[in-house]
Amino acid sequence: MSKHNVALIFGGRSPEHEVSIVTAHQVCAALEENYHVIPIYVTKEGEWLTGEGLRDLSVFTDGSLPRSSDFDKVTVEFDAVPKFVVYTKQWFRKKMELPVDVVFPSIHGAHGEDGTLQGLLELMHLPYVGAGVGGSAVGMDKIMMKAILNENKLPILPYLWWTQYQWETLGPDIIKKVEAMLSYPLFVKPAMSGSSIGVSSVKSRVELLPAVELAGQYCRRILIEQGVEEAREINCSVMGSHELTPSVCEQPVAQSNFLSFEDKYIHQEAESSGMAGAERKIPAPISEKLTLHIQELATRSFQVLDCAGVARIDFLVDASEHVYVNEINTIPGSFSFYLWEQEGIEFPQLVSRLIDLAFSVHQEKKGLTYSYATNLLSQAGASFAKLKQDGKLQNTAF
After folding, report:
1. Which range marks the domain in which residue 305 is found?
2. Are 107 and 20 in contact (CB under 8 A)?
3. Helix (H, G, I), strand (E, B) or coil at 112
C-alpha cells in the first residue's frame, strides 16, 4: 500500500510562528514512518517554501530563520483543478505540481488556525486535519466563541468587549462601563490571539490602561473578562468528528496568577519535548466527579463550536469547584499528544487517526449537493430584455 502524501503547513504570519515550528517538527517525526511528508514553511512575510532541509529543526534554531533563496517556492494555481505548484530555486525556475493527498495544518493563531487556511483548502477540494472554516474561525475569535458558548448554556465568565476605534474615541466611557459591570481582578485579551500573547491580568485602573494598549497591538477587538481568585486551570482534549472521545485532564503549573507564554513554552523541564515539556500535572489532581464534569463540558464545547480532529479546551475552576470554559484551541500546541499518551495512544497513532478523520470528513462533504436546478437565469434574461425594451435599462453589461 502506497503512502499518502501529507503536506505539513507551518510557520505563518502569526505571533505564534516559533511555536508552530516546534509543533510541526514534532508532527513530522510522528508522521514519517507511515506517510510521505511534504514540509511547507510559511515565512513571517507570508512566502511559502518547501524542501527536504525544512525537516531539520536545526535549520530554524541556528540563530536565524530559513532564507527563501535556499528553498523552492510554493504557490497555489486555480486551474481546472486547484493545486499546489512548486517553482524550484534554480535559475531556470522549473515548475512542477506538488502531489498532495491530505493537508496537516500546524499553524497556530492568525492565518492558519482562524479559518483562513481552511478556506483555501476548501476551495482546493483537499482533505485537511482539524476543524473546518467555521469551527476554526469561531474557536480563534474569543468574543464570538463566548457568545456561542453562552447561547448554548455552557458556563463562561462575565465579559465585555470593544473595538480599538471605540477605545480611542470612547475610552473613559468604556472604563466606567467596565468598572460598573465587572470587578477587579480582570483579564484583558486580544479577541484573536493564542499562547497568552497580549494577555494581561489587571488589578486596578492604573494597570487596565497599558493592558488595553498591549492587547490592541495584536487585534482590533479587545476582550475583558472577570478574573477568578485562586483559580486553577484544567485542560481537556477532545478527538473525533461525530463520535467524540475526551482525554485525561491536565493541570498546567503557572509561575504567576495565570499561565503566561513563558510558562507554556520557556519554563520547561524537558527541552527536547517542546510544548509537552511545560510543567503540568497529568492526570490533574481533581476528583473523579470533577474530571467527568470537565470532560462532558469539553465534549459539548467541541460539538457546539463545530470542531473536528483534535482540540484542547481550557477551563478555569474556582475554589468552590465552579467550572468555566475559558477557551478552545483547535490546533493545540503539540496537538496535545501528551494527553493522549495517557490513554495509550502514542503520537504516531494520534496523527494517523487525525488523517483518517480528515479523509472521513472530506468524504462526507463530497456527498453534499453544491448545485440547485432552477430557471432563474432564463427569467432574469427575460426581465432584463423587457426593461431594456422599455428604455428603463441602458446597459446590461457588468
Report:
1. 230-360
2. yes
3. coil
Query: CA-CA distance, 230 to 232, in Å (whole number)?
Result: 7
The Cα 230–Cα 281 span in angstroms is 17
- Grid coordinates representing 313 are 479546551
Please give the residue that has the higher pLDDT: either 8 or 70: 8
Q: How far apart are the first and last CA of the chain?
A: 51
Q: Which three cell numbers stand for residue 371?
A: 448545485
Task: State mean pLDDT over 304-317.
Answer: 97
Average pLDDT for the chain: 90
The answer for residues whose C-beta is within 8 angstroms of residue 82's C-beta and 6 or more apart is 76, 123, 124, 125
What confidence tens digit (pLDDT) does each residue in 275-290 have? Answer: 555 689 999 999 999 9
Rounded Cα–Cα distance for residues 14 and 24 (Å): 15
- How many folded domains does the chain comprise? 3
Q: Which of 2, 1, 5 is nearest to 98 (CA)?
A: 5
Judged on CB neighbours under 10 Å (0-12, 13-18, 19+), 395 is: exposed
Domain harbouring 205, CATH code: 3.30.1490.20
pLDDT digits (tens, 9 = 90+) for 180-193: 999 999 999 999 87
pLDDT band at 9 (very low <50, low <70, confident <90, very high): very high
Q: Are 12 and 41 in contact (CB under 8 A)?
A: no
User: How many angstroms separate the CA atoms of 86 and 39, rounded?
Assistant: 12
CA distance 209 to 179: 13
Q: Are residues 253 and 333 in the same domain?
A: yes
The CATH number for 92's domain is: 3.40.50.20
pLDDT band at 138 (very low <50, low <70, confident <90, very high): very high
| Amino acid identity for residue 283 in this structure | P
How far, in Å, CA of 24 to CA of 71, rounded?
A: 18
pLDDT at 79: 82
Judge whether 44 and 17 are in contact, CB under 8 Å: yes
- Distance between CA atoms of 223 and 230, rounded to whole angstroms? 21
C-alpha cell at 333: 500546541
pLDDT value of residue 261: 47
Residue type present at position 388: K
